[in-house]
């Protein structure tokens, strides 16, 4: 290719219109056609992938196909580059389509071609095309290639059962860290934690992505202690965490309210990241809020260089959960002043704040405003929160009317909210109605029996308490054991009702006996 032709093709990739008008697509198409014509006039048939892509970007897929078919000297590298061009721009259907044109032109794909196009099937969740691409790779004899194998493992792990992903992994010759990590994520998605951890342990090498896969997998599925322990192990092995590691680890330590350990995680974030991004910042704001340290949560919130709706929600929800409704409302008003629009989580946190602080009229105002101005924000959880708000305040007539006017059939959570209010205010008649509704929806629901028993107990109706407990025994119902924990010197000690497995059990009961005899 001569220098003039090369410059012509290169300029196309950098082409950016100065004005955005309704003729933008047409102008871009014309510029693309002129660049293509100049290239042909100069005697070159080697085209930059962006020329073909530009035809598509100008809504002229027909021209792109025609160009692809007419150029005589495509090779696997240039055709793969064009497929990659579409895939990188999330035009996955077109990437697969051009792969089929490539096959029609008898261009034999290589491992990089398959490694580029198979993820497009995964992104589209197109099982049929993915299976066909895998079959094509097998036919050519490339199924054991590590690039293709990793893509195929990811495809099956996300779209089918884990067995197909395992077989693809086993067929891969010398799987690399990407192959292992992909299958680990598949195991985590299917909640096969033992298999995931066993595979992680036998990896020949691990990187930060593979550590993130197991830590985030445990954290997202609620196995918080395991996630925290893995993060600590990661640090001890000298693997530096990144921006993606800390949100998962901090979320896990927040869920077990291990304040001391979480502070050390915060220190690690400062050490390894310096100025961390909004995702790490938001996780720390939420962590301190969940641990009840609202002063630290607010301090960190104020230091965030950029705040989004998640930042505000973490703070508002923290104040709401700790009964500081006035502060929650205040920060909601501040958020609106900054121009940040609330979402459904914001509204739910706001209603929760009003519920826990007895701000009934204010909660009603916010709910009705959302119902009129932005009804798309409202979910059944918001309606249930309103029932809880009214019931806790003892406004049962309004709560009953609200339930009758619901635009849908109330679920079990609504009647539990009503029953909770009845327990607080010893409204036995309405409480028994709520309990019957709950048992009609779920006859095996233990918590409704316990709540109703507590309501009768609070009202001094011991005969009713005895009857409820007898019925629970006859149905062989057992309440969920209570659980508590305490953090001492960065170690978490967990206690369950009736549990006698703690390693310091004898010393604990010895101290408990001493306290009991001296109080």
Describe the overall structure:
It contains 29 helices and two strands. It has 519 residues and is an all-alpha fold. It has a two-stranded antiparallel sheet. Mean pLDDT is 83; it is low at 1-30.
Q: How many beta-strand segments?
A: 2
What summary fits the major beta sheet?
A: 2 strands, antiparallel
Strand content: under 5%
The first-to-last residue Cα distance is 94 Å
Regions with little confidence, pLDDT below 50 for 5+ residues: 1-30
Tally of helical runs: 29
What is the general shape? globular
- The amount of helix comes to over 70%
Cross-sheet strand order for the largest sheet:
1-2
Quickly give the structural class: mainly alpha
Taking Cα atoms only, what radius of gyration do you get, to the nearest Å? 31 Å
Mean pLDDT, nearest integer? 83
